[in-house]
């Protein structure tokens, strides 16, 4: 039977009663209070073997109290409960030195299990001393159960250098999570460097990753530092790792195994001190079976797997996300916007094939294009009724002009509506559909040179930059 004395602090009497009963049945001695002052008095008297406390107390916030408890009794495990359920709550709990963070409501069996582990764990293995940093921004938004589990995992990873593999569909925020791991982790003083494997020509990937020496290949007129060197002491984010060619995979594996690399054309090994975070929207196990991805590299990268759910699996987060993006747009100079409940309900019913990125782009369009302050369901219906490409036997013809192809597509699109009239706003929707591939093609043709791409398109360079940012276009800046 477990033994130990538990101190419980929560201003909700009903929650205290439930916790008292559950912990007592599990064999623990329990004392509970509704304020921080009593909890502090018990701690300083040497009472209790473990603390369970809510964040918001009537007389003091637990995040202010925990550092004092940790200083007075550094071996006393603290479990933090909270109904706030944000990413920063989980991070603050970890940074202040909490043993574990539990978002309300939580499973009592899970709590009992955590209490047992905390009390049986050696004292020198318990939570590290708290840090003094305070955080003002929230990089990740959402209170759904799926996001709560991600927050808890991230909080545990912050003070480690473990390699993380983030999987998820495009637009789920994989780079955002990688940046959060860096910005709130032990390497925050270093540099965060991101590289997208899908955006770099295959013959340049090794040079991009490891750098090259002068004269290593045609066009290598000077020595160039690679991304590993740029990220030294920080974090290297390898996005779309499934698109990495096999020869580059072999070199990456060698770096992970030996902790050193050589530049292209170089002979002297260079020690590497970077944290690796990889991401993919592909099934790497399937690529392994197809002989396209090294199994040994997969296991080296997949130390801590982290799956980001698509937005359709956490639609309860849509209201928080759209308001967050509206606030972000307002800070950038766009008009303030609100959204009514019917419009929120319509957003929650959408499938979101583009995930959070699609929602963010929608928020920016709504802020920029619509004069009304409150966005209604009619506006959302208009925006989400996007044209879809026809399928079946209506295939493009090799000799068909762009204008003829567009005309054929629109004819099919119009015919899909009973009265032959799609929702209002068609002009802007069609322009947006053609704009992304047009800009992407121009940037690819000019190898990411935005001055040449702007000249090719016949637009101002600043206009092109704004379009790249608004459309979230990944730009590879290569040689010209």
UniProtKB/TrEMBL annotation:
Subcellular location: Cytoplasm
Annotated ranges, domain Response regulatory: 5-119
Gene name per UniProt: ntrC
Protein name from the UniProt record: DNA-binding transcriptional regulator NtrC
KW Transcription (keyword) present: yes
Keyword Phosphoprotein: yes
Domain of life of the source: Bacteria
GO BP field: regulation of DNA-templated transcription; regulation of nitrogen utilization
